[in-house]
Write the structure tokens for this entry.
Amino acid sequence: MNNKDSAGTNFKWVGKRTRRPDGPDKVTGRARYGDDMIVPGMLHAKILRSPHAHAKILSIDTSKARAFKGVKAVVTSADIPDHPLTKPPYGPIITDFHDISCNVLAREKVLYDGHAIAGVAATSERIARAAIKLIEVEYEVLPHVLDPLEASKPDAPVLHDHQYTHGVDPEPEKPSNVFRVVTGGRGDVEKGFAGADIIVEREFSSQPVHQGYIEPQACIATASEDDSVELWTTTQGHFVIRAFCARLLNMDMARIRVTASEIGGGFGGKNNIYAEPVAIRLSQMTGRPVRMVMSRSEVFRATGPASGTHTRIRMGAKKDGTITAAEVDIYNQAGAFKGSPVGRSIETFFSAYTIENIRASGYDVCVNRPKVAAYRAPGAPMAAFAAEGTINELASRLGMDAVDIRMKNAVREGDQSLSGIKYGQIGLLDVLEKVKSHEHYSAPLGPNQGRGFALGYWMHGGGLSSVSANLLDDGTIAVATGNPDIGGSRSSMRVMAAEELGIDIEMIKPIVADTGSMGYSHLTAGSRTTFATGMAVINAVREIIDKLRALAAKKWEIPVEEITWEAGQAETGRDGIKALSLKELAGMATKMGGPIAGHSEINAGGAGAAFSAQLVDVEVDPETGFVSPKRYTVFQDVGRAISPDYVEGQIQGGAVQGIGWALNEEYVYDDQARLQNTGFLDYRMPVASDVPMIDAVLIEVPNPNHPYGVRGVGEPPIISAPAAVANAVENAIGITMSSLPLSPPKVLNAIEQGQAEKD
């Protein structure tokens, strides 16, 4: 175990490699995930799903299912309250409860293959599966559209007759699949292009990809006679689940208590509600607990993937590499309902660069696919794929080094992102310099091999977090947070608490509390948890320290101002007074005033921009088009790595997912828009044999707005990964590649076309 802090500080725990507190339960199988909860008397629920991508629901007959032996209740959209459409102004994230209710159970129309129609609760899963087949639905099948560019055209089949494009002038008179157009820019783009010596224009496309979490969505709802509900669910944000279910079902929020199970992967895909309201309603109808677990097919057909995109981009530069202008249009698939991460796409394109003249437009487009969900830096990887691919081509045509052109145009402290965020202390130049000096950058390549490079930018989140820290009589401390642990946050919370108190980390017990036990905490998402919830942990522990100092002052009968807290004990400079340890003070607390606890409820600001650069070497088989990644190095400004091994794991995981996006993963539909690859055998995610060892180079430029310099680390490593892999393939075969995934048939076709052109 390496206990040397890479930043050269004298921290006792921060920056060290420590035992994971939840590790033993997870490796021994004691940890309880969503599917592990069993409640006496529970019913099993299943959902009937649409076989059509777009169709009117003419009628639903549930009589046979209701009469089936063992069936206790059936629900349709008639049992879920409808809500009015959200009206402008619209925020960056769209939360429309009309859309949510229609996604939970379809109303007038089904809008994608797998759209939920009705739910059945029965005494066994076998009976529930048989019962949903007895529900008779009459449809009028309608034309469908899957591609965002095609869906944006005036003659495309329209999903929602009430939807008119927002953010355009003049206001449209006809409904459209384009929900809104988001724009950003600065300077004079045409003037910038007029001053360019070289201009590159390209188009890029990508397909929807799924988060690929191993654990499917699962929940148990238990409704009581007093109208209260207890919900156990696998989620990244149980406070958000409570709020959504209460609003959707017109219930008082205090009547719903949500406990987050352990989570077997999420990556943004478990931020939303799917089966929870159906399970709650079935439990209310039957008076019994209702358990619902999705199959893998249901996960793929009915839960949100990342957006597929189509991008048109143009960039111009002078001969010395100065980028003078850039403009881009991106069409983001929202799925069946509005709300793609188009704003994050716009922010990602050019915010790492000091380009004076920029125009960016993003189109939020509805298509007949599942409603998209967040997936690790939502909207950013596909924006970086286009922007970084274009910059790499600029560098190639100018005869410049790929890192040098970025260093010339890189943002620095005091510069602004495209949305106007002013950068504080950032580590972009440190990252690029580390890349340039790393031996991987100049290592020799073999036959049919190519090296790729790309840069990614991410502004992580802050926001609402609550923490309760309780000192126990034996000197141990329970630290309760409201954020599910999806990436080692228990460890980082424990480390920061122990560092503040100056005690051994084993004296800290981190807990993920339910929604009835503490104040609101936002999602474990946006790379916010170690930053924002960690800040709340620090505040709560410091309150405990202040109370311990006050207790020591009372014991010693001296002013509290004379007491300091050092290395886990209260000290004073007065002669003859022996220091009191935390354990000693804890033992006397209840006898001298009462229990000691610390609390913090904050809206954390001061998030710091993070940058991740990636080098990847690939080998392409010229006879099959198969791409094998051979070497991979990620360089990332992590602010300060609270737990370096977990940070490295986050970086490696993001890179592996990026390899999957670049080379293998996509949704495959037939001509009726029915999903064909609904399992891991056909949806081709990378396995261990598909990827090389991934070297994580941690660059630590502390964020001055956090006590320990934290920046979000979970999302940056995926942003530049598809662009870096694609660039490596391009350099291996000598042909530009602009459509992901770069599957063997696609690469082989490019090789053969390139050879035919030479001949």
